[in-house]
Amino acid sequence: MAKTTKLEKSAEKAYDKAKEAVKDARDLAKKVAKKKRPPVDDLKKDLKKAKADLATTPAKSAAPKSTASMSAPKSDEDKAGALYTPPLPHSAESDDLHAQTMISLRTTAKAKGLTGISRLNKAGLIERLERSGS
User: Fold this and answer.
1) CA dihedral over 60, 63, 68, 73, signed as positive or negative
2) Are 128 and 114 spatial neighbours (Cβ–Cβ below 8 Å)?
3) Alpha carbon distance 133, 88 (integer Å)
4) What is the pLDDT of residue 50?
């Protein structure tokens, strides 16, 4: 019986040592992970630099030259946005409101001075425009 208790004690010691080793390994892993993370200040500097580079580079138009009559971007932010989004098709106010896009319908409604149009769907927006005398 003495041998069993001696074995149990040595097993407990080994278990405790292993538990400590696992805890130490986890602590070290956390330290390494913190060191590998880039500081927030560096990320902010990189973002400012990218914005500045984007603002200084000339905007390349993806549209054909026939759409040159469309309004040109006025600010640096508009120029930056033009790099990523293609210009929307400009549709003159046509008699068929159903053929127009939501964006052109909203622009028309804003031009007419209608309020509360942002929550309307296309059918509701067309109805409001027809009621206003479109």
Assistant:
1) negative
2) yes
3) 25
4) 85
State which residues of the chain have pLDDT below 50. Answer: 62-64, 66-70
- Residue 9 one-letter amino acid: K
In sequence order, the 6+-apart residues with CB closer than 8 A to the CB of 133 are none
Residue type, 37: R
Half-sphere exposure of 101 (CA within 13 A, CB side): 8
Residues with Cβ within 8 Å of residue 67, at least 6 apart in sequence? 87, 90
Cβ–Cβ under 8 Å, residues 97 and 130: yes
Q: What token pair was written down for 89?
A: 């098709």
Q: Which DSSP string do the residues of 14-69 spell out, in sequence order?
A: HHHHHHHHHHHHHHHHHHHHHHHSPPHHHHHHHHHHHHHHHHHSPPPP-S-GGGGG
Residue in the block written with tokens 């390349």: 60
Cα 134 to Cα 88, 94, 101, 116, 127: the distances in Å are 22, 10, 16, 17, 10
On whether the CB atoms of residues 80 and 54 are closer than 8 A, the answer is yes
pLDDT tens, position by position, 60-90:
554 445 444 445 555 555 555 556 666 666 5
